[in-house]
Amino acid sequence: QVRLVESGGGLVQAGGSLRLSCVVSGGMFRIYAMGWYRQAPGKQRELVANINSAGGTNYADSVKGRFTISRDNAKNTVYLQMNNLKPEDTAVYYCSLPATDYWGQGTQVTVSS
């Protein structure tokens, strides 16, 4: 059974930074593609960024140049570095194994203006 646990969310002012972490247990992390998703109130969940097993990355247009996804296979952890945060980045952020039912519990990110 794969388990994902996110951390690192919080309240930050616009222009600030946060780093989210997602620790994965119960599987072979190094072979997994991983994704960060977010869901704002009243909106559908959307992909923020993903990273494949070789380290290749992909970003939503809305976060390109501000967010960076990375992984540490020795720690079974995927990160999302978020810089120059905007109020529209406010959402619950989830990590997931894409195309599976494996999701974390989510971590709240709130950006004040």
SSE ordering: EEEEEEEEEE
Unreliable parts:
none
Structural class: mainly beta
Taken from the alpha-carbon principal axes, the silhouette is globular
Summarize the amount of helix as a percent range. under 10%
Rg measurement, Å: 13 Å
Describe the biggest sheet? 6 strands, mixed
Query: Could you give the distance between the termini?
Result: 40 Å
Mean pLDDT: 96
- Beta percentage is over 45%
Number of helices: 0
Number of strands: 10
Walk me through what this model shows:
This protein is an all-beta fold and 113 residues long. It is built from no helices and ten strands. The mean pLDDT is 96. Helix content is 0%, strand content 50%. It has a six-stranded mixed β-sheet with strand order 2-10-9-4-5-6, with no helix packed on it. A four-stranded antiparallel β-sheet has the order 1-3-8-7, with no helix packed on it. It starts with a strand and ends with a strand.
Topology diagram in text:
Elements lengths: L2 E5 L2 E4 L4 E8 L8 E6 L6 E6 L5 E3 L7 E6 L4 E6 L8 E6 L10 E6 L1
Parallel strand pairs: 2-10
Antiparallel strand pairs: 1-3, 3-8, 4-5, 4-9, 5-6, 7-8, 9-10
Brief synopsis:
With 113 residues, the protein is mainly beta. Helix content is 0%, strand content 50%.
Q: Characteristics of this structure?
A:
six-stranded mixed sheet, 0% helix, 113 residues, four-stranded antiparallel sheet, mainly beta
